Amino acid sequence: MSKVYFKAVDSYNKTEEISAAAAELLKYLTEEENVELEKFIPLKVHFGEKGNSTYINSKNYVGIINYLRGKNIESSFIETNVLYKGERTTKEKHIKLAKEHGFVELPIIIADGEHGEDYTEVEINKKNFNKCKVGKEIANKKQIIVMSHFKGHVLAGFGGAIKQLGMGCASRGGKLAQHANSIPKISSLKCKACKACEVKCPEGAITVINKAKIDKDKCVGCASCMAICPHGAISNSWLASISKSFNERLAEYAFAAAKDKNNIYITFAFNITKNCDCEGHSMKPIVKDVGIFASKDPVAIDKAALDTIDKDNGKTVFKRGRYTLEYAEKIGLGSQNYELIRMV
Ligand code: SF4
Ligand code: SF4
User: Fold this and answer.
1) Is residue 282 classed exposed, middle or buried when 0-12, 13-18 and 19+ CB atoms within 10 A define those classes?
2) Which of the ends of the chain has fewer CB neighbours closer than 10 A, N or C?
């Protein structure tokens, strides 16, 4: 059974208190489970898309950064480029945005290089992939602290540690591979031919004449068009049929990103929004804040976060994507069986 450590805090706590709680969880976990710490441990974070306001602010990581410094451990923020057009598609723009968003406490590494070309093929020999393209600067590390913001996700159902590993550590090509076959549908009744999707599509797969149309041979299923359409004309009705396949691919990539690493997972479950931090606009939280989780097990920490959110809100909040946990457990990424240790 995996252990998951938890401290109840919410986004209304002072940032210093949140930061101290995260550091306390890290300290407790490393001491309790005798985790050997490497001399260099990057923090896998998400810098938030331009316009997003609910990503985890870097000030919340200061306690952890100071804890590592106190042990003479060097660190950096580490991230990979995204698939869709935006401010985080290339290394230069990505670092610029990260700094604008306040990520100035540590050096920044974009793990898959300028345009996603730097990756290592990690052999896993699973059902969907034999090899996964993991950002080179992540693949060559022995230990990473994976910082996740728990929230919903249009494709994965929810995003926590597994999502941060699987999609977040994949090179651009790895992200493409995970999205394969996920082609959305456009409602000709709802489409107003505004062309926002045509401009946004990273693959030039959409043409708008009277109505938008997707070229299925070009579409890589990145879902950017779904996020951008102002009229809700691009549907996720395909999710039901492909979600299991997508969730399996995500879990396999998470397995690859964590392979042979002595990782630590810290998940912030507050400002829990319907969609992810890649959305370039602000979103209202959909449920109550919960707290911070820490674990050595990415499956256990996601399960604990889902269960705690449901319990605190008296309902099943994120209904889709739970198969990811089942499949991740099956391939050996971690365990859904956990003990929750509440810290006061
Ligand atoms: S963004 Fe939506 S409304 Fe605009 S062209 Fe595309 S599908 Fe049609
Ligand atoms: S048409 Fe396909 S490739 Fe283009 S934005 Fe939509 S999902 Fe992405």
Assistant:
1) exposed
2) C
